[in-house]
Amino acid sequence: VCVMAHVTARKMPTIHRHEEEKFFVNADGGKESVPSIHDPPTKELSVVVPSYNEEDRLPLMMDEALDYLEKRQKRDPSFTYEVIVVDDGSKDHTKKVAMKYCKKYGSDKVRVLSLVKNRGKGGAVRMGVFSSRGKKILMADADGATKFADIEKVEEGLKNLRPWPNQMAISCGSRAHLEKDSIAKRSYFRTLLMYGFHFLVWFLCVREIRDTQCGFKLLTREAAARTFSTLHIERW
Question: From the record, what ranges are coiled-coil (predicted)?
C-alpha cells in the first residue's frame, strides 16, 4: 500500500473547475461569478451543503437551518451568513428545490452551485468551500442527521482550541455518544459491519477520533483553504 501510494501520489492535486461552475444563478435568474476562498471574508458564517439526489431530504434540513440562522440574525444583527447548496450533478430535482430557497431568502443568503458532473462528497464540499465568503465555514449534510442548533457546540469547541496557529483550527461534530441507541435500532448484521468499519478506520487511519463519519465540521477560513487545497481524493 505504501509503495502504491508513493508511486501514484502527486505532489499537489489538480483542482479543475468547469466553466459552468465559475458562476451561480441568482434569485433573478442571472449569472454571477463565484467568490474565492482566497478573497477577504464578508460573512461571519458559510454553510456548505453537498447534495446529490436530495430533493426529498433537503427541504427538512434547509427549513431547520434557515429557521435557526434567521432567528440568530434577529438576536444579533451583526451575525451574517450564507448557505451554499452544492448540487453534485444530481439526476433529480435537487437544484430546483434549492433554488426555491434562493428565491425566498435572496441569493446573498442562499446560493446554489451546480456541478457539471458528480464529483463525490469530497469534491462537492471542496467546490462549496472554494466559493464561500465566511470567516468560518461549516460542513453540513443534506440529510439533516445532525440538529443544526448543535452548531453552537462545535463553535464552542472551536473557541476552546484557541490560540489558533496561523488562524487554523477545525472543530468536528460527533455522534459517538448516540452509538448505544443506534445499535438498538440496527440489525446484528449492520452492527457487525459498523464495528468492522470502525476497526478499519482505527487501524488504518485515525485512532483518536471516535466518529469520523459525522458530516458536521466547522473550520476557520484559513484552515479550510489549506485543507481543501491539498485534497487528493474527491470521492470521499
Answer: none
- Range of the structural domain that residue 73 is part of: 19-173+214-230
Residue 87 located in a structural domain: yes
Name the band, by pLDDT with cuts 50, 70 and 90, for residue 210: low
pLDDT class of 125 with cuts at 50, 70, 90? very high
Residue 2 inside a domain? The answer is: no
Question: With 60 as the cut, is the pLDDT of residue 177 above it?
Answer: no
At 107, is the pLDDT very low, low, confident or very high (cuts 50, 70, 90)?
very high
Give the C-alpha separation, 193 to 228, whole Å: 30
- Same domain for 205 and 148, yes or no, is no
| Residue 201 and residue 85 share a domain | no
Closest alpha carbon to 61 in 153, 178, 145: 145
